[in-house]
Specification:
With 202 residues, the protein is mainly α. The chain has one domain: Serine Threonine Protein Phosphatase 5, Tetratricopeptide repeat (Alpha Horseshoe), CATH 1.25.40. Helix content is 70%, strand content 0%. It is globular, with a radius of gyration of 16 Å. It starts with a helix and ends with a helix. The site of magnesium ion (MG) has 6 residues, from loops.
């Protein structure tokens, strides 16, 4: 699943950079693609016996050390803190997804101080984490679909927000009309995880 996510993010480099260009410096796709190339190398070299949490944490550390900048720290935190929280999980199921996303959100908020409505990736991650807690009793594929839809709704809602933090905070009302690029990345990652789980469940 993580390798499929990495390929999807790498392929989405132009889309993510365009999203950043609308509100920021246009480097988001480049950074994300670089980070997920590092994730691929790390995962392909990883020992599966080390477990699920270690895999996610190693992916996060690969992003932090390869991407640089605010996105590297923030997106690396999603995977590193999320992975640490499911270190003892035997399987990646819906409860593990909920635990991972809540820890990821807590880590990102602690690090970046963003709250919902600031027009950052939190506007996709926050609704995703809350939806994951609601649907933790469902099979993983159904939970992931609900979570991906929540993240996409959050991404779309960020279009109508005036940035008060993050890449577009100096633009004020000029930030209206475009979604936050980080929210686009979160939605893409969760949609790809959902698509993977749907095909695995079919
Ligand atoms: Mg940027």
């Amino acid at each position: 699943m993580l390798l499929t996510v990495a390929d999807a993010v790498i392929a989405a480099e132009p889309y993510l950079s365009e999203a950043d260009r609308n509100l920021g410096d246009g480097d988001h796709g480049i950074g994300m693609a670089r980070g997920f190339r590092a994730v691929k190398e790390k995962i392909q070299a990883a020992d599966p016996a080390e477990g699920l949490g270690k895999l996610f944490s190693q992916a996060g550390m690969a992003m932090i050390t390869s991407m640089g900048g605010a996105s590297g720290a923030i997106f690396g935190t999603v995977f590193r803190d999320g992975g640490k929280a499911i270190a003892t999980a035997a399987a990646f199921d819906a409860p593990a997804l909920a635990t991972l996303l809540q820890a990821a959100l807590d880590g990102v908020v602690a690090r970046g101080k963003a709250k919902p409505g600031d027009k950052t990736m939190v506007d996709a991650l926050h609704p995703a984490a809350h939806k994951a807690a609601e649907v933790a009793a469902l099979p993983l594929s159904e939970a992931l679909l609900a979570v991906a839809l929540a993240a996409e709704a959050g991404r779309d809602a960020s279009k109508d927000m005036i940035a008060t933090l993050g890449r577009a905070k100096t633009l004020g009302a000029a930030s209206l009309g475009h979604p936050d690029a980080g929210a686009c990345s979160i939605a893409l990652i969760l949609r790809t995880m959902s698509d993977f789980a749907q095909s695995a469940a079919a």
